[in-house]
Design goal:
2 domains; Rossmann fold; 390 residues; single chain
């Protein structure tokens, strides 16, 4: 059976549930094509013979915002390749799958919740609204959709006006079992004392998240506490001013910054060498559903918990489960982070054990993917039966 993933998003390689699904299908003897951007933030080099990556030219120009090169590449490939299943990753991937892959079973891998009313300027609102209307039209025509948790699935069903039962859940997690791992990666890289209580933030540094202010505050923390930032790529001071200033504030005594793409194996070593994981996003308005109901879609939180690292997260409705499960503490402001860190360190084994338990019970990629793969097999079986009848 041959599957194609249509993914025009530049951060594809840093989305665990997408990468793991591609690998899992290949491991189960499916042939998988991935059509994606030539300007990926992290280069994607699959280590499986059954995975083929096809890129379209993405020059970040005006026409790239209309995804013309992407739609053209998809159209040309569907003319010369026969696929059994089409998976549309993200909004534009869904649209290409539905409108260009004629009469093929389509699965929608939804990664972001958009209402279509995002954007401050009038032309951005029109742009987002038009794409949202097309997404809603296409989502009603797929075989089924994939989302990360019940809260987000309920919202997707309501926003896109699709049946809730047509959505299957798949956490944004890496495959494998939850377990602790011994690592001193950060300690060796930055010459941090082995017994330090290291707070780690991996991934993006959102505007007004509180990280910049936290970095300044961390310079006054007691000697045993350290703060480390790790980002997957360098940031432009013009485009990402807040993140750039946050990283520049590192003094290599109390606050440290690492800006370089690393493999998953090294990322695991980085996280495993920390004591507490951070997931701050700052205050968001009531329309920012994607952040407020982030839930099981946070790849960083899921990786922290997989390795038994307790979490300090923003007190969004989508993160309530972190405190409820005893896997960490939620805070509303950066000023509460140090107090939360002291509370976690005072009862570390309790929080660490609950982190592992929470991953096993709620965030396992492997258990959830089996449901999707079984559904895909049934689709294939039904197609073959129809061919025989004809």
């Amino acid at each position: 059976m041959k599957i194609v993933f249509l993914s025009p998003i530049r951060h594809l390689a840093s989305i665990p549930f997408a990468m793991e699904s591609i690998q899992a299908f290949a491991d189960r003897e499916y042939r998988v094509d991935v059509i994606t951007s030539s300007a990926l933030e992290l280069k994607y080099k699959p280590n499986h013979l059954k995975i083929r990556v096809i890129t379209y030219p993405d020059n970040k120009g005006l026409f790239d915002y209309l995804f013309i090169s992407f739609f053209k590449k998809v159209y040309l490939y569907q003319k010369h390749n026969s696929y059994d299943i089409v998976i549309g990753m993200s909004q534009k991937g869904l649209i290409a799958a539905t409108l260009l892959m004629f009469r093929k079973p389509v699965i929608y891998f939804n990664d972001e919740l958009w209402t279509g009313y995002e954007g401050r300027k009038w032309y951005k609102k029109i742009y987002n609204r038009v794409w949202k209307c097309i997404e809603q039209f296409c989502n009603r025509r797929v075989t089924f959709s994939v989302n990360q948790d019940n809260l987000r699935a309920d919202l997707l069903a309501k926003i896109n006006k699709i049946p809730r039962e047509s959505i299957i859940l798949l956490p944004n997690s890496f495959s494998g079992k939850a377990s602790r791992k011994e690592s001193s990666y950060l300690q060796k890289k930055f010459h941090i004392p082995e017994k330090s209580n290291t707070l780690l933030s991996i991934g993006a540094i959102p505007v007004n998240s509180g990280y910049l202010e936290l970095a300044e505050e961390a310079k006054k923390w007691p000697e045993e506490f350290r703060l480390v930032f790790h980002m997957r790529h360098p940031v432009s001071p013009q485009k990402y001013s807040y993140a750039y200033r946050t990283l520049e504030s590192a003094d290599n005594k109390h606050v440290y910054a690492s800006v370089s793409p690393v493999s998953y194996e090294i990322l695991v070593d980085i996280v495993a060498s920390s004591k507490i994981g951070l997931a701050l996003y700052g205050n968001r308005n009531s329309r920012d559903l994607n952040a407020l109901f982030i839930g099981y879609s946070s790849g960083k939180v899921n990786l922290y918990l997989k390795l038994g690292i307790p979490v300090i997260a923003q007190d969004f409705p989508g993160f309530k489960w972190i405190e409820e499960s005893g896997a960490g503490i939620c805070v509303s402001e950066y000023t509460e982070v140090f107090g939360a860190a002291k509370d976690i360190m005072a009862n570390y084994n309790f929080y660490s054990e609950n982190a592992l338990k929470t991953f096993k019970e709620r965030l396992s990629f492997d258990c959830s993917f089996e449901i999707i793969e079984n559904k895909v097999r049934r689709i294939s079986t039904n197609k073959n039966l129809k061919r025989r009848v004809k």
